[in-house]
Amino acid sequence: MGRNRPHVYFPLIILIFLGSLLLGGLTAAVTAYTENNIYLPVLNRGTMVEFRGLWITRFEWAIGKNPTPADIDRIVDNAATAGFNALLFQVRGTADAYYPSPVEPWAAALGGSLGVDPGWDPLAHMITAAHARGLQVHAYINAYPVWPYGSIPPETVPRHLYHKLADRYGMVGNKVAGLQWNQSYEVPQEFYLRATPASFLVDEQLLAVTRDLVSRYDLDGIHLDNIRYGGRGNSCDPVTEARIGGPCFTTVPEGYASFEDWQRAQVNGTVNSVYQALFAPDENGQTRASPGLLLSAAVWPFYESGYHNYYQDSKAWLAGGYIDSLMPMLYGSFDDDVAAWQELAAGFQADNAGRYVIPGIHGNFESFADIAGRIAAARQVGAAGHAIFAYSYLENRGYFDDLAAGPYRYPAVPPQVTWHP
Predict the structure, then answer these.
(1) What is the mean pLDDT of residues 163-177?
(2) Which residue has the higher pLDDT, 169 or 37?
(3) Residue 141 Rama label (left phi>0; alpha psi -120 to 50; beta)
(4) 314 near 345, Cβ under 8 Å?
(5) Across the chain, how many H-helices and E-strands are there?
(6) What residue numbers bound the domain in which 401 lies?
(7) Model confidence pLDDT, tens digit, residues 254-300
(8) Residue 238 forms part of a structural domain
(9) Cis peptide leading into 20, omega within 30 of 0?
(10) Is 34 part of any domain?
């Protein structure tokens, strides 16, 4: 049982409206739940429509874990018992693969060394186990991280992106030209070495990864993370300066109001390229991905900060129609303030452009009431659902039963994607 359990859960009133609703060719009775005056649409005898996502990072299920299929089964069982309906399962961290990939080498966390086959397919096992329990699986992939700072990946087959960047763009001293550099023309000492968004090779690699995933696995979604620059002042790499024809930050590329606007366009272009690769019809009118697949992205929680400091214009992706859902990472410096969380969520929801906003909730609160309050706030602002970060926090605090008895005590199905060709 979870610690600091609230003594009283939200009261429930069930309202039954006369009449019927034609949806997807089926006539379903329309009812609505209300919690604290928050009305929720429900279909087919009480099933709510709400995305209930759970991030499962590679640090939680793979790195330092020596995972087995039984570990995947336990994760799925806990998530299903709690009432989740979608798992964001990380399968790409630093241009490595947590599944058998023809594009990138096996992650070292699985086989002991980069490129070593562990002898089983965690993603395939996750999909089978999760679908059997009625949960969606979204392949969660880091976009721009290449490798941890301070080391170099070994040579493998397939060849790692770090070495592909060095091959295509060369080295300047000990620096790969295709990585992000700062204004001192050094590779920033951050957790990750990051690829420059100015590189077409980086997009080619990401597209190859996503195309392969949707062609071989019965996925419900692709989830992008780290789809931004590493920080303000990046990137003064040679690839960027060659493309703009001059020094970074002082050169204004033609057609742009500033160098920073050009940088935002590079990130926008990566997102758009993934979307088109998945959903643009071919000459036969077919798309590579299932029309119901959801392309989502974890984005900076403070939109203006993301826009100016990380060159991530996430709301442009909604307005441009090349993302299906934003998942703002709203688990920062306002841990005890549900009102501040709700204000940020409402800001994204107001600009959803007819797509889905699914705000993120931190799972490591000392009181479960803080999580329940944010779930209620997401419902209040009309979000398509919410996602909780991350699995291990809920497990460590014993919150799975609190979810099942509280906010998730009624079943929910994720909202459908209806706008793809």
Answers:
(1) 97
(2) 169
(3) beta
(4) no
(5) 14, 20
(6) 50-411
(7) 999 999 999 999 999 999 999 999 999 988 888 999 999 999 999 99
(8) yes
(9) no
(10) no
